[in-house]
Design a protein that fits this description.
With 250 residues, the chain is of the alpha+beta class. Helices cover 20% and strands 30% of the residues. It has 5 helices and 10 strands. A hairpin with a 2-residue loop joins strand 8 and strand 9. The model has no long low-confidence stretch (mean pLDDT 95).
């Protein structure tokens, strides 16, 4: 058996989920905490690679040991509290489940949901630093344009136009199930669910929707822009601090 963990983390000080040479990773922190708790080396596998500075509200990963069964050593319902005592303050486990050996947190995913969070205020706020992207002056009309652009991104298509350079992925067809924008007070939230995402895809989709809000792109042109594959026609790739992995469905 494996142990599936659902965790949240503030990615501001991490180089992303995956262990790398160039900085601290969330994967390393979780692996260290599990090893300390159980007194054994373990393998921690995540549902995706989140980039440096990106956050998660409900990240899914599995834990397994090579020298024995992890489940039953500690009651599953007690694992979150026990693990949180070994984790840094910017990472927390919210739930734990026993899953079969055949379960894979990445390859068994049916859909993921991301949100890109912006805050609309005249001046920047220190309270959103590292957690949301600062924008200005989105009124009802500009928000409607942004919503229309987001809605036009849904569907099964080749989304290569939203993929940043540096990726080795060749199959760039994905199905976007939902894509919308909502306002919650001074927050503007771009939300998208899909069967998978390309490198920096969500941040570029959000930047394109924002460009439509400000009139630099016409919402009605979104479909043509996607089909064109011309990356010069999309909006900017927004910085990582506003991006959150919010849900993973299996």
């Amino acid at each position: 058996m494996k142990l599936q963990l659902i965790l949240a983390y503030d990615g501001a000080r991490y180089c992303g989920w995956q262990s790398q040479r160039r900085g601290d990773s969330v994967q390393e922190a979780v692996t260290s905490a599990v090893s300390e708790l159980y007194g054994r080396q373990c393998l921690v596998t995540g549902c995706s690679r989140t980039d440096s500075g990106v956050h998660a509200r409900a990240y899914s990963c599995t834990v397994e040991f090579t020298d024995g069964d992890i489940c039953g050593v500690i009651p599953t319902e007690s694992v979150p509290r026990a693990l949180n005592a070994h984790l840094p303050g910017d990472i927390a486990v919210s739930a734990a489940f026993a899953v079969g050996d055949g379960f894979h947190p990445r390859y068994d995913v049916k859909s993921k949901t991301y949100e890109y969070v912006m805050y609309d205020t005249p001046e920047r706020s220190p309270f959103y630093a590292g957690r949301a992207y600062h924008i200005r002056s989105l009124d009802g009309d500009t928000l409607a344009r942004m919503s229309a652009a987001a809605g036009a991104m849904a569907g099964r298509r080749d989304f290569a136009v939203f993929m940043a350079s540096g990726s080795k992925i060749r199959d760039t067809v994905r199905e976007v199930y939902e894509c919308d924008v909502r306002r919650e007070g001074e927050l503007v939230i771009f939300r998208v669910s899909a069967d998978g995402f390309l490198y920096k895809m969500v941040r570029t989709m959000a930047g394109t929707a924002l460009a439509a809000a400000y009139g630099r792109i016409e919402p009605g042109d979104i479909g043509d822009i996607i089909e064109s594959g011309n990356r010069g026609r999309v909006g900017s790739t927004l910085p990582p601090e506003g991006l959150y992995l919010c849900r993973v469905d299996y």
